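User: Design a sequence. Structure:
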């Protein structure tokens, strides 16, 4: 029965996010905000709303390990899995704006999150600061878009203008489904964690992170299929920014003593998230395109990361060998390959 509730909760999260995205995007388009900014804000924030719903519910029920694990796991999943799958379907184009501002901002936020985590807790004060940062970032994007008077052409986004009343009803219904789904989904996740002997942090990094990222998966893949490849990338980058500023910031406000952060999160998972964010720069820089080969590379690394979590959680004998191969062979080769790619691209531009 719990597994049925878990699956039902996941379906409600996806349906709720879809309604929220469509309703919110319809309202946003009435303000003549560009499609790229809509993708970075409304669509990205809407598809991240399951993480927010689960984060608030986890904080209220004292399961903060899931809150932090969900955000870090989702950010890793978004880049490695979603961009990987999307690029395999069709090579993705990266706008100069994303490369100049939003990707470096995402990297900076990832480093800031590590610094805030060093004392083992994300306090309410820090939550307020992160939430304020989200408001400033969103305002900057919207004001900049309206100032440049970027028109929204028909067919630029995966949503169309609808009546105000219908959009409000859709957004409100989406929020309701998200809250109901987060309760069932969280209960099911905790049940699975306990029965398989996994910690709340591990289940947050894997099952919950992947489950709450399903709206991003659907949105990015549909954007690629429709030829709107910049929206696919913008949705992922915007979601990662919202996860740190919005999900963690707002969730910390609901946690009585702040959000506790495990040592493994500080020593391994957050550094992995930073490394994944840093990997975006050379890959995005190489011609402004994420190729199919780079997409396969992303998918390979996500598979390796997930396998490592499973081996570590089960204390498998293969863990030392696997770790050595990754650290001394796979990662150095990848770094060298990316460096050569960037250097060749730089020389060709000169």
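Assistant: Done.
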């Amino acid at each position: 029965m719990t597994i049925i509730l878990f699956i039902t909760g996941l379906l409600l999260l996806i349906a709720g996010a879809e309604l929220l995205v469509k309703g919110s995007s319809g309202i946003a388009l009435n303000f003549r905000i560009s499609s790229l900014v809509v993708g970075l804000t409304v669509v990205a924030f809407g598809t991240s709303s399951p993480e927010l719903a689960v984060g608030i519910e986890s904080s209220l029920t004292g399961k903060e390990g899931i809150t932090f694990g969900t955000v870090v796991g989702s950010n890793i999943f978004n880049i490695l899995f979603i961009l990987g799958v999307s690029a395999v379907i069709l090579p993705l184009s990266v706008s100069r704006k994303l490369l100049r501002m939003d990707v470096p901002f995402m990297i900076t936020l990832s480093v800031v999150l590590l610094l805030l985590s060093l004392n083992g807790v994300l306090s309410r004060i820090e939550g307020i600061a992160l939430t304020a940062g989200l408001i400033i970032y969103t305002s900057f994007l919207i004001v900049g878009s309206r100032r440049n008077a970027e028109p929204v052409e028909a067919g630029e986004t995966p949503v169309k203008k609808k009546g105000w009343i219908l959009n409000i009803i859709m957004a409100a219904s989406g929020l309701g489904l998200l809250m109901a789904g987060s309760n069932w989904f969280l209960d099911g996740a905790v049940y699975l964690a306990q029965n398989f002997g996994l910690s709340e942090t591990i289940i947050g990094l894997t099952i919950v992170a992947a489950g709450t990222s399903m709206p991003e998966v659907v949105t990015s893949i549909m954007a690629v299929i429709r030829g709107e490849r910049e929206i696919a990338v913008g949705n992922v980058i915007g979601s990662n920014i919202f996860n740190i500023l919005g999900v963690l910031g707002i969730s910390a406000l609901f946690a009585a003593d702040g959000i506790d952060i495990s040592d493994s999160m500080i020593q391994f998972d957050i550094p992995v998230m930073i490394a994944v964010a840093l990997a975006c720069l050379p890959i995005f820089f190489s011609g402004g395109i994420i190729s199919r080969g780079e997409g396969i590379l992303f998918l390979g690394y996500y598979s390796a990361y997930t396998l490592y979590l499973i081996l570590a959680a089960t204390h498998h004998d293969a863990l030392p060998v696997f770790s050595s191969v990754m650290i001394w062979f796979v990662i150095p080769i990848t770094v060298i390959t990316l460096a050569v790619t960037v250097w060749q691209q730089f020389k060709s531009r000169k």
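The first helix runs from residue 2 to 29. The longest strand covers residues 92-93.
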